[in-house]
Design the sequence.
């Protein structure tokens, strides 16, 4: 959760873009939640009651839902990608400025390839988190709330059973998330070491071949 808080703080200066992106996320999540409400009358009226009139408006409603959901997803993707790119630009500029202020001992302790990996690979991971993770958090949270409301509206007894079973899935998901964070951190460190090795090897090739 601390990571999401930092991402929200970095995206704060682009609040207008984020506001419109959040509106698109809410629309997309709401329309996704509306599909079960359309599915029930589609089955009852078309297949069970043989209602010809329902055959006219239900397909149009489904097409309209997917159309507007697609437009909303497109809007939030464009806006969140734009925010992610701007956050990455800001981070790289700040990181570069901080590196330039360091002493000679800092550069002696930290290989050039490792520093390059921090500016490129690690910051690129922030872009992915800012554009995808925040989107998933906002849209999926709203969609979950809307779907819970739909479930209670359609069958409150089954909804109560689902609410009892759902907390049991939180623990394994949490454990899996922690393991994934460890693997991601390890891969970033390995990538930094690899970049450092490549930089030192390639930059020293001319000197080695000269002898």
Sequence:
């Amino acid at each position: 959760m601390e990571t999401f808080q930092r991402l929200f703080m970095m995206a704060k200066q682009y609040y207008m873009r984020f506001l419109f992106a959040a509106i698109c996320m809410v629309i997309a999540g709401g329309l996704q939640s509306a599909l079960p409400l359309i599915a029930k009358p589609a089955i009852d009226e078309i297949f069970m009651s043989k209602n010809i009139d329902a055959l006219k408006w239900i397909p149009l409603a489904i097409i309209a839902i997917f159309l507007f959901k697609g437009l909303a997803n497109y809007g939030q993707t464009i806006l969140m990608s734009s925010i992610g790119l701007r956050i990455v630009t800001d981070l790289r500029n700040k990181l570069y400025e901080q590196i330039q202020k360091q002493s000679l001992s800092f550069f002696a302790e930290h290989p050039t390839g490792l520093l390059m990996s921090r500016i490129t690979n690690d910051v690129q991971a922030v872009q992915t988190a800012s554009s995808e993770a925040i989107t998933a958090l906002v849209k999926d949270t709203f969609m979950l709330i809307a779907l819970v409301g739909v479930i209670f509206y359609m069958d409150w007894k089954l909804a109560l059973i689902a609410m009892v079973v759902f907390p049991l899935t939180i623990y394994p998901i949490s454990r899996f998330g922690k393991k994934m964070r460890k693997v991601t951190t390890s891969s970033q460190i390995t990538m930094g070491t690899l970049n450092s090795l490549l930089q030192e090897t390639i930059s020293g090739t001319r000197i080695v071949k000269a002898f």
